[in-house]
Write a structure and sequence with these properties.
single chain, mainly alpha, 81% helix, elongated
């Protein structure tokens, strides 16, 4: 357990190949954490269809179905990208996912000015943890690629 906590620290130096693989796999953990957050949000939105209908009324009569469908597809993509990162610990997946997470945090920060509820605060906290894990994954994957290139 302690080795996984150390791997999640983006400032820790990964020395052995096992530590580097563990650190690179933190990107998969971050993707799965974000997928779980988005799945919980999807379930919450399914419970509040009238609120969602009012919010997407400009999108036409199928706006709610399209929004929920896209969100479900996003959850599946995050799970698949996490599996890919777990099996092939590379730098591309955590870099792209980290950039998207940073953008989502920026967007959430812009909405903070209008006041947010508990669900939004939990979502922001999960995104911060995911961003830290993506940074750790990039560092671990870069060290692993460097080790494999010299071997």
């Amino acid at each position: 357990m302690n080795t996984w906590i150390r791997a999640a620290n983006p400032l820790a130096k990964s020395v052995t190949e096992d530590e580097q693989i563990r650190a690179a796999r933190m990107g998969a953990v971050a993707l799965w954490l974000t997928a779980a957050k988005d799945a919980m949000l999807l379930v919450y939105l399914l419970g509040s269809i009238p609120l969602l209908t009012a919010a997407t009324s400009a999108a036409g009569p199928n706006g709610v179905a399209i929004s929920l469908g896209l969100m479900a597809v996003l959850v599946v993509i995050q799970i698949a990208a996490g599996l890919f990162q777990w099996k092939r610990a590379g730098t591309m997946v955590p870099i792209v996912a980290g950039m998207l997470t940073a953008y989502a945090l920026y967007q959430a920060g812009m909405k903070l000015a209008g006041g947010v509820g508990t669900l939004a605060m939990i979502s922001i906290a999960i995104m911060v943890v995911a961003l830290v894990l993506h940074i750790a994954a990039v560092r671990g994957a870069m060290a692993l690629e460097k080790r494999r290139a010299t071997a």
